[in-house]
Amino acid sequence: MDKKTKIGIAIMVLSSIFLTIGQYFFKLSSKTFQLNIPSLLTNYNLFFALCTCGIGAVLLIIALKFGDLSVIFPLVSITYVFVIIMSYLVFNEIINTFKIVAIAFIVAGVIFITRGTKNG
Amino acid sequence: MVKEIIIGMALVIIGSLVASPGAIFFKKASQNLGKNIFKLLKIKEFYIGAILFVLSTLFFVPGLKYGELSILYPVASFSYIWVALLSIHFLKEKMNISKWAGILLIIGGVVLIGLGS
Predict the structure, then answer these.
(1) Chain-centre distance of CA A84, in angstroms?
(2) Contacts of B41 (CB under 8 A, 6+ apart)
(3) Helix-strand-coil percent breakdown of chain A, rounded to 5?
(4) With 0-12 CB in 10 A as exposed, 13-18 as middle and 19+ as buried, what is B3?
(5) CB contact under 8 A, B109 and A61
(6) Nearest to residue A68, comparing CAs of B57, B101, B96, B74?
(7) What's the complex ipTM?
(8) pLDDT tens figures, B8-27
(9) Chain B: residue nearest A72 by CA?
(10) Inter-chain contact B109–A115, Cβ cutoff 8 Å?
């Protein structure tokens, strides 16, 4: 794997972290979520969710400077892994066998994809 | 029940079809981006991509509420396939066995997450 791709992966990991934090705030915001403008505007968790996801999106775009879309974009799935871990730590969601094997599959998938770059 | 799952699947499929071109626009935006990140706000592809992603959530979020994540999550992860195909056509990127295998593994992982949810 060439150095450029490694930088792209690193930035994508950072992007995934922000997207995961965004999921955290989205989950919090769903508790007080109402589909009317006054409620939406005062939903601070929703605001934080959009901000952190926005940062995640910008980092995704920056990462795209360092690799092909078909390599960088699937790395968004790293977010699944982080969300599982975050949900367990913060919301006490159970990590069952499915999720553990899922994490293994996603990590394997990421390895295959990044090994598939030009200089492999 | 079946009707609900179909509605859920339809919404999620539409969501992934809307989000995938958004990724193409983000890649185009990144190509026009220099060292100054704030210049991103002047790139129209950034806005088009952002709008497409936001629009896709309007389909994804309601769609996923139809439950049956074991089916809906994998359907949503077809985005990775659409993006790969769009990348070949619009960005002249090359796919290979390793990258397709990686995408299949990720979809497999998402299927398992759906089953475990």
Answers:
(1) 11
(2) none
(3) 80, 0, 20
(4) exposed
(5) no
(6) B96
(7) 0.88
(8) 899 999 999 999 999 999 99
(9) B27
(10) no
